Amino acid sequence: MEVPFLDLKRQYQSIKNEVDDAISKVMESQHFILGDEVENFEKSVAKYCGAENAIGVASGTDAILLSLKALGIGTGDKVITSPFTFFATAGAIHNVGATPVFADIELDTYNIVPEKIEEILNKDSKDIKAVIPVHLYGQMADMQSILEIAEVYDLAVIEDAAQAIGTEYNGKKAGTLGDAGCFSFFPSKNLGGAGDGGMIVTNNDELADKIRTLRVHGSKQKYYHEVVGYNSRLDTLQAAILNKKLDYLDKWSGKRRANAEFYNNKLQWDGIETPFSAENRTHIYNQYTIRTKDRDNLMKFLNDNGIGAVVYYPLPLHLQPCFSYLGYEKGDLPNAERASEEVLSLPIFPELTQEEKTYVVERIMEFFNA
Ligand SMILES: *Cc1c(COP(=O)(O)O)cnc(C)c1O
Known about the structure:
The protein is an alpha/beta fold. 40% of the residues lie in helices and 14% in strands. The longest helix is centred in the C-terminal third of the chain and has 18 residues, at 249-266.
């Protein structure tokens, strides 16, 4: 039996007519840049999240980059973030000219620890202008504590919600708690496009206006430029497809949750840690990630048995060659390092069958002699 890690074809088959209609409508109009489709999708996402503004951009990476830029963060500034995230979080900080500062994660949710942020600020808060909590795997970081710290130190808060669209913290949707929230529509995200795409949500109208300007070369009126911006628009074609898919997002995330529950119930023995669900938070399981000391052997065993199992992420950001200039060493952020050695993500996509889930569980039990 083969169980793919992710099979997007099944999702497409289930909504093929709607998606194909949306695509052909855009093709008939031959209107490919911004326009009604993008505006409608922005409105849909703003409403879905309960945010005042939503701005479609070219990718999740650009969503972070443009948020930093619009908040005035650049050369000489420092931004605190998690070392255990997709590269783009820290890459965007670097690319606006600022310096990433890494605060270690907790091993239950894999998210940044507020006390570690405070430790850094207590030591030397000079030049630190913002914090980017990442809501890893689909569960939010401890936002209340982070917002309290940000208030004391006057930091901007940008949520990297690329893996967390629709997840909640005390009933509020990811992305709406900080100054800005960033989403990615990379195909493997819970709301995935047919290519790259991203969005920023914010309740700050002035910030939204700046981001809207930045995404079109810093111009409000065509060919007149107030600031130097970027070409970072969400494609009209992507917006049309994503707007259709948004209607199914909660249903799909619910199926991911049901799959996670199945795994959680079966994978209970010493030597394996199943995902932890923090109080007052929901989980949308962009990834279902377990932790075990025998990770590499388990991954090989599963892969050899036809099961897609993947490591997110094998090398924490503070140890990446490109960030060696920051001067971190192995041992500096022990939880992130341990996570990178022990995590393994299992197939969790919504269309997974009962047979497939059972096969995954049985092979894991076989490996552990459980
Ligand atoms: C996917 C992802 C991004 C980047 O999104 P892109 O759309 O691929 O640019 C940023 N941060 C996290 C945590 C992600 O998972």
